[in-house]
Amino acid sequence: MTAGKHCELCLNPGGHVLWNDAKLRVIAVDEPGYPGFCRVVWNNHVAEMSDLDAADQAHCMAVVNAVELVLRETLHPAKINLASLGNMVAHLHWHVIPRFHDDPHFPQPIWAPRERQGPGERPGCGNLHAFIRHRLDKLFPEAR
Amino acid sequence: MTAGKHCELCLNPGGHVLWNDAKLRVIAVDEPGYPGFCRVVWNNHVAEMSDLDAADQAHCMAVVNAVELVLRETLHPAKINLASLGNMVAHLHWHVIPRFHDDPHFPQPIWAPRERQGPGERPGCGNLHAFIRHRLDKLFPEAR
Fold first, then answer.
1. Cβ–Cβ below 8 Å for A61 and B57
2. What would the pLDDT profile of B39-95 be if each residue is shown by its tens digit?
3. From residue B30, how far is each of A28, A123, A130, B27, B40 by CA, in Å?
4. CB pairs under 8 A between A and B
5. What residues of chain B, 73 to 102, have a C-beta less than 8 Å from chain A?
6. Beta-ladder partners of A25
7. CA of A65: which chain B residue's CA is closest?
8. How do residues A98-117 score in pLDDT, each as one tens digit?
9. Interface pTM (ipTM) of the complex?
């Protein structure tokens, strides 16, 4: 599939880019109450994971997994939520969301109605982006 | 991690089992308005994808991908939604959800407030479970 003229993830990065290679980018998501929320956005306009070949699927999930691990090690969340939805923007992107007992929706998914405000920062957030870049640079040195 | 005494996915299959091997099971989810909704449940009690080693992660995603492909080919949904959340049941399980323009929440995620009832059946549903079993048996003959 080619780039979509009206697809916002074809037209824009979708947030502050923490890391990228030729295939994908890792974005810091600016969502109130969710410090540490990241997205892994596939660069080409494909809708579904099963539109990727096995090697690309594996690469995408390796990056999701690396982001998940850094979030766990740095922020110590109660849970990680992973989701590829794309009902409104049908351009493959993975939500990688650190969840905490005091976040705006816990234990509900972040798409349920908000139950509280949640803190704006978390201990560890200051180094998070640098740690994500460092981990991905180390895992995929050929991307530099 | 060992089996959880109070974990419902350790104590119960979690739905009608369509297919299983030593590592995981594929479940038909009985959710009103969502015919075709499946879950891939890891058998051992682990919370996160990053708790699995690389081979187990790859196997889990290969099964998720196979279910996704059969849902696409059989039901022709507008979108597939994939999610591993587990905030309430922290036992690794993947939601594999065929989404349609007339389902109860489209284009919102299924965890948002319901907007309509949605149909109880979809064309293709009658053969779906057999097709999922057949696809997985073919992909993983050693599981039989």
1. yes
2. 999 999 999 999 999 999 999 999 999 999 999 999 999 999 999 999 999 999 999
3. 35, 40, 43, 9, 14
4. 96
5. 78-88, 90, 99
6. A20, A41
7. B50
8. 999 999 999 999 999 999 99
9. 0.96
